[in-house]
Structures are given as structure tokens and as C-alpha cells.
Design a protein that fits this description.
Blueprint: E1 14-15, H1 26-38, H2 45-55, H3 58-64, H4 70-82, H5 85-90, H6 107-120, H7 131-146, H8 149-175, H9 181-191, H10 195-198, H11 201-205, H12 211-215, H13 217-242, H14 252-260, H15 264-292, H16 295-315, H17 319-322, E2 341-342
Parallel strand pairs: 1-2
């Protein structure tokens, strides 16, 4: 598909008061994860190797789990690599790898249902082998060795939620229509796919969360806010990359610009203001939750913190967003995210966002008062 002639937007630093961290074995984890992914036929040749090295995807796992067992962090790093599936199958970017999985009879809905069923019952080969299918089933088998049935069940549920939202996004692309902002807010949190990572927080950490831990209003709100922050931040980091194809760019910036009738560049500070309001609320609820919870729930909240920070610190240095055309800066425009962070939030950062899908995050009882 012919790429558009576009220029990158200026993206200001991201407000994030969470300090950075990184696993001491990052380099080894990174190298092994690239070898693992390529062993299934993904990103072949010298060019594919160069691309994966420049993307730094395993750094997400190494920054989100800086103190965990390196073998378990390795599994998370491999899962992060697998979710490039989102580019090839959901967003339709076939520039780096063959997309055989999405050609399943029945299109994306059939693919989604079959993938979920293969995760539930991994002995049933419902799809033909491809880099995506083979790598995913390898991850599923490795999870069996370290996760309880309950933990795997939660992860498969997160996978189902991700594919459901991704189907909504593909439908919008096929109609070539941007969703309303309120609908996009509802769509983007599960469509980001980050729940595939955070649902495994206790597996990678070697402990067990209970359903009661995860269902507590504070913990549930923090989980939703973390997933949303990472998804919206990714919209800002990936805007240039997403703008290069002829497909509609279903991105927070474009949706705001369409709804407000402003330019894309003028929509950027509006998007930043939205994510800063969520970041501010996250920290308020997070501080209250840490004082109330201990043990597994507190460890989980710390992992949510680190995923938010990890996404910013990795993305700001990833060629996936800086140089999505994979060409020298003398030939095409590159994006620069320098500095990536700021300690100062946008004006009005303490104001609530009143979208129906997320308004409950600002309930008073989440940071003070009793819970029902």
C-alpha cells in the first residue's frame, strides 16, 4: 500500500512522576527474545534483525519487571515481541513480515475466535502454522510450566477482551470513519492490548493475586487507568507511524482533531491534557491504595506503576516510532521525543474527565471513604 507523504507532529514531554527502573540482565533478555521470535520465521534476514534490534521491545518487560526472575521476564519479553501481531494483523501493516494468520477463512472474527480457543485448549490446531500462531502457542505452553490454571484463565480472558476491541477498531477502519471521542475512550483501553502483559504480573513475579485483590475498586480503577495511560501514550508515540498508510488513522489525536474541528498539531496538547488528568488521578488513587493494601495487591500496583513508566522510557528510544520508515534521517523525517518526560503536568490536570466509560475513576471513595 502506498505510504502518504506526512510530517511528524511535535510531541511534548510526558508527565510521569514514576521513577524509571531496568532489569540488570536487559541485554541478555533482549538478545534471547529476538532469537526466539526469529526462530518462528518472523522478521527474517539481516534487515529483519536490524529492525527488531532498533525497536527495543524487550526493554518494556525489563523495565516493568526490574527485580524479577530473568527467566520469567524472558517470557514477558517474548510476549511483547509477539504483540507486533497488532501491526501486521489488526492495523494491516505488512511491511515487515508476512501476514498469513489474518488470511484465515472468515477473516478477523474467525481468526480471533480460533486464537482464543487454541489458548483455552492448546492441543487443538484450529489454525495453520504461521510465525504468529506458532510463537503464541509456544508462549502458551511455557505458561503452563509456571502459571496456575486460574492465572492462565485470567490471561485468556484478557486476550479475548483485546481481540473484541480490536474487532471494533477494524470495523471502524473498514467503514473509513473515525469513532466519536467518547466511543474511542471506551474502545482504546482494551484495544491497547496491555492487559495481556499486566494480567501476568503475578506470574512473572512468582506470587498469586486473588479475585478479591483484583476486584477491589481501587485496584480495578488503577488497572483501568494504567491500561488507558499506556494506550493513549502509545497513540502519541506512534502517531507518525500510523499516519503513513492509506488506512484511516484511528488514533486519539485524529479523533480529537475531528471532533474539535482543529488541526492535528493543535489536537496534541488536548490529548496530552487528557492523559495528564488520568496520570494525576492515577497517582492520587495509587497513593491511597498503597496505604490500604499490602502483600500481593501492593506488588501488583507497583508493577502497574512500572508499566506506565516503562512504556514512556522504551518508546522514546524505539526506532519503531522514531524512524518507522526504517530509512536514514537524510532521506525521511524522524520523530524526536527529547526530553521524553516532565515533572510538570498540563494546566487543569486535576479536573475529572467525564466520559461515560471512565467517569467512575473520579469517585471520591476511591481515595477517601468506605467501599461497598
Amino acid at each position: 500500500m502506498t505510504a502518504k507523504i506526512v510530517e511528524p507532529l511535535h510531541i511534548p514531554p510526558f508527565y510521569c512522576p514514576i521513577p524509571p527502573a531496568v532489569h540488570p540482565e536487559l541485554e541478555r533478555i533482549d538478545g534471547r527474545s529476538i532469537e526466539w521470535f526469529r526462530s518462528f520465521g518472523a522478521f527474517p534476514g539481516d534487515e529483519g534483525l536490524k529492525i527488531l534490534r532498533g525497536w527495543h521491545h524487550p526493554e518494556l518487560a525489563a523495565r516493568a519487571h526490574p527485580e524479577e526472575d530473568p527467566e520469567r521476564v524472558q517470557l514477558m519479553a517474548d510476549l511483547v515481541h509477539w504483540t507486533i501481531f497488532d501491526d501486521a494483523v489488526i492495523d494491516g501493516d505488512h511491511s515487515h513480515t508476512a501476514d498469513t494468520a489474518s488470511k484465515a477463512a472468515g477473516g478477523f472474527p474467525a481468526l480471533a475466535v480460533k486464537l482464543v480457543r487454541m489458548l483455552e485448549a492448546p492441543d487443538g490446531p484450529l489454525l495453520l502454522a504461521s510465525p504468529w500462531v506458532s510463537a503464541l502457542m509456544d508462549l502458551r505452553r511455557r505458561l503452563d510450566a509456571i502459571a496456575t490454571p486460574a492465572q492462565i484463565h485470567r490471561w485468556v480472558g484478557a486476550f479475548r477482551e483485546y481481540l473484541l476491541a480490536a474487532g471494533w477498531k477494524r470495523f471502524s477502519q473498514a467503514k473509513r470513519e473515525l469513532p466519536r471521542l467518547a466511543d474511542y475512550v471506551a474502545m482504546r483501553t482494551p484495544d491497547g492490548g496491555v492487559q495481556l502483559y499486566v494480567t501476568l504480573a503475578d506470574v512473572i513475579g512468582g506470587y498469586q493475586l486473588t479475585d478479591a485483590d483484583l476486584a477491589h475498586p481501587q485496584v480495578r480503577a488503577l488497572t483501568e487507568m494504567a491500561l488507558t495511560l499506556i494506550a493513549w501514550d502509545n497513540d502519541l508515540f506512534s502517531h507518525y507511524k500510523e499516519s503513513l498508510t492509506e488506512d484511516p488513522c484511528i488514533n486519539l489525536v485524529d479523533v480529537i482533531a475531528a471532533e474539535r474541528g482543529c488541526s492535528l498539531q493543535d489536537a496534541v496538547p488536548l490529548a496530552m491534557a487528557m492523559r495528564d488528568r488520568v496520570m494525576t488521578r492515577y497517582m492520587a488513587v495509587r497513593d491511597a491504595a498503597v496505604s490500604r493494601h499490602d502483600g500481593a495487591a501492593r506488588r501488583y500496583i507497583t508493577t502497574l506503576d512500572r508499566w506506565i513508566a516503562s512504556n514512556i522510557d522504551m518508546s522514546a528510544n524505539s526506532d519503531r516510532y522514531i524512524n518507522p520508515r526504517n530509512r536514514p534521517a537524510t532521506e525521511v523525517a524522524w520523530v524526536h521525543f527529547e526530553p521524553a518526560r516532565t515533572d510538570t503536568p498540563s494546566e487543569g490536570h486535576a479536573l475529572p474527565l467525564e466520559f461515560p466509560a471512565i467517569g467512575w475513576w473520579w469517585r471520591k471513595e476511591l481515595h477517601a471513604g468506605p467501599f461497598r
